[in-house]
Design goal:
The protein is of the alpha/beta class and about 375 residues long. It contains 11 helices and 14 strands. α10 links the parallel β11 and β12.
Amino acid sequence: MEKITFILICHFGLEKVLKTEVKRLGLELGEVTDGEVKAIGTLFDIPRLNFNLRTSERVMIEISTFKATVPDELLENAKKCEIEKYVPVDGEFLITKANQDKNSILKSSQANQKTVKKAFVERLKKVYNTSILTESRGKYPFRVKFNKNICSIRLDTTGDSLHKRGYRIKSGLAPIEETLAAALIKLTDFNKDKILIDPFCGSGTIPIEAAMIASNIPPSVDRAFVSETWDVIPKEAWKEARKEALSNINQERLNMKDIKIFGFDIDSNMIKIAEDNAKRADVSQMIHFETCAVKDFANMKCIENLTNGIILSNPPYGERLEDKDKVVPIYKDLKYSYDNLNKNDKTFDMHIITSFEDAIKYLGKESKNRKLYNGMIKTYLYSYLCN
Ligand SMILES: C[S@@+](CC[C@H](N)C(=O)[O-])C[C@H]1O[C@@H](n2cnc3c(N)ncnc32)[C@H](O)[C@@H]1O
């Protein structure tokens, strides 16, 4: 079967985490650039990647990459793209987004989109020997990215971004994306037997993603993808990939009586939302959610006998939720509770993602940190390690 190069999109700074996921799925890795990981596979990997990747936002097929500094160059190169491999004579093809860097001569993303559309119309009319393209079936969203005069044309196989798993119908004001939450968990030494506590759990994203990772529940098997209707991907490929993904679920861990994942939040409405979200993700039996202020969580009955594990959390940043002064007591309370939790030889590591510049002033010097982007916000993951 013909080899395809995939371009997998992820949050800046999390390329290594995504690479590990791709390797586990058995695909050959290609070039890695900011926020993008390339992988080599076949059409059969489209469902596998979309169902299983936890930290990627989107799975795209690389159609062509070429230099273009004048519109004619873009037009002629776009005409050479063999899009008929994917788009049938009546297929609807869109140029959805044209990422544009400031260093390219062809600056107008709208104009570039138009040129590529024109080239594709001409190409399809010619190869299908028709004067009319009805564009009435399926959806084939192409994207055009320019970087330093190099144009990359891709075909999106995902549709709605992969962070939209489907379980989070409600959330608070500043939920963390599911893909980022999964990546944070993978940056810790979390495994199916580890305790994980999120003292600012909000809508429950971190505990829910942790439960899905612990029990190997595929993140996106129950949602729709734009490429599901494409003739070029055999229906069998979707069926087989779904079967494979579901067969990997660790039923024993899923049904284990001992609860190892905990989510606390001061807001009881958020706890209700988190519980509902966990139910929709089929992991509610694996997580204990409870209303609790951060200053009290170390004394919660449900965790009193636990001696080691991980705190992983996304506290208010003072950016989107409250202003800076209001978050200071929250960070002081977190430090107080963390120290309290680690009394009597207990060893809990702590990982906190925040954009609050004074975080370490209140939490203490971190063992290590990592710069990450939460959407457009520059954040750091501060890690406090016991060993
Ligand atoms: C950035 S949000 C967390 C979002 C969460 N990760 C999600 O995906 O929905 C911060 C959360 O901290 C909670 N919070 C604020 N002050 C708190 C406190 N003193 N103790 C515990 N939770 C608090 C808020 O109710 C909010 O849900």
